[in-house]
Structure formats: structure tokens, C-alpha cells
Amino acid sequence: MSTRRLAAFMVGLSSVWVAIGSPLAAFHHALLSVHMVQHVLLMAVAPPLMLIGAPALPLQYGLPWRSARRAVQRLLRSPPARSLRRFLTRPVVCWLAPVAALIGWHVPAVFELGVRSRWWHDLQAASFFATGVLFWLPVVRWRAGVVSASPWLIPVYLFAATLPCDALSAFLVFCDRVVYPSYRATHCPRFSYSAIASYTPRTFRPRGSRVLHLSTTRNSPAP
Predict the structure, then answer these.
(1) Cα separation of 12 and 215, whole Å?
(2) 211 near 170, Cβ under 8 Å?
(3) Which residues contact 219 (CB under 8 A, 6 or more apart)?
(4) Is the separation of the CB atoms in 169 and 162 below 8 Å?
(5) What is the DSSP string of 155-214?
């Protein structure tokens, strides 16, 4: 593995730690902006960096026993695994999966589950990361032939992905009611403003939606 790939993988892995294991994660129940930063790190920062690192081959050959390596290779080459891979690497699936995860988890009732339950929050984070990996596959790995996508389609693919995020951001900004009640009832003592300042109608509510909007419009590199 080259130094460039190793550095990209380690930065991506560090981004996952910042999102779910660092002190920043302790504030996601109190501040919507921190919650959105977690989503951005898990969907738009960590996946492309870790894909650039191409960790699959080192992980496969890093298994401690030769029999285990052979078993994994046979499993990956089996017809069901190949069929699943062909399905998951279709550009349409790679695009729809993160959009569905993003919109689905921001439905107020579902979002509240992620805020109130640790198990649901972990499931939410895992789905964001997994669908983020799928989304970035056509962009990062198209040269390797992992995804059969034409190079000229990549800018269209990236631009189309910003549209659902823009729609969600606009809804959060212009909605005339509190969408996520948990952030109205909590308070973060380490800051001079409470969570209600982070998300209330017509005040500081755009803070979280602005994080989501900027991440999708500025973190979509050209191939």
C-alpha cells in the first residue's frame, strides 16, 4: 500500500472516530449542528477517503491463517456474492441508497428514535456510513472497474445527489414549526446557548441545515 493510500485511509478512519467516538459525539443529543456534522463525516468525508485507501486487499491478505484467506476468497467468488456485488454496485443503487437513508432518517418520528435510543442511533450511524461507501464507489473506484459508470456521468451523478440534500435543508430552514422536539427540550451546559437556540423557528434553526447544505455543495469533488 502506498503512502498516499495509507494516509487517506487513516484520515478516513479518524473521521469515523471523530463522528462516533470523540468528545464531539457527546453533544449530538444537545445540538443539531453537531448531529449534522456527524452525518457529514460519516457520509461525505470518511467513505471516499477510506475507498481511496483501498483497504480490501490488505485486509484480505492480512488474515492470520491461509485457510481463512482461502475461505474469504471462495466466498467472494461465489455466485451469490457476485450477484449481490453486481446489484449493489449499480450506479442507480449507489445513488438511491444514501438518498433513502438521508431522507428516511430525517423523518421526524424516525429521527427522534435516533436521538432517544442508543441502539437506533448506532444503526443510523452505520447506515449513513454504509450508504456513503456505496455512494462514493462510482466516483472513487470507477477507474478500477468496480462500478460500470462512464466518466462523463460522474459530475451529473454528484450534482443530482445535492438536490435531495438541498430540499431537506430548505425544509428545515423554512418550516414554521419545531421539527425535532428533542432539541427543544435539551440543554447543553458547556455553551452559552441551549439546544433550542440551535433549532427553533426563525432563530438559529438554519445552523444545522446550513451544515448539511454546505457539506453537499462543497464536498463533491470532480472525478
Answers:
(1) 16
(2) no
(3) 40, 44, 45
(4) no
(5) HHHHHHHHHHHHHHHHHHHH-SS-S-THHHH---TTSSS-HHHHS-TTTTTHHHHHHHHH
Proportion of the chain in helix, strand, coil states, percent, rounded to 5? 75, 0, 25
Give the single-character DSSP code of 27: G
Q: Are 12 and 49 in contact (CB under 8 A)?
A: yes
d(CA 164, CA 131): 15
Any idea how long the chain is?
Answer: 223
Q: How many CB atoms lie within 10 A of CB 43?
A: 29
Distance, CA of 106 to CA of 128 (rounded, Å): 12
Tell me, what amino acid is at 128? F
Distances (CA, A) of 212 to 72, 162, 165, 172: 38, 10, 7, 10
pLDDT bucket at 47, cuts 50 / 70 / 90: very high
Residue 220 DSSP one-character state: -
Q: What is the pLDDT of residues 16-43, one digit of tens each?
A: 999 998 888 878 777 778 888 888 999 9
Among residues 128, 151, 130, 121, the alpha carbon closest in space to that of 223 is found at: 151
- Give the Cα separation of 143 and 147 in Å (integer): 9
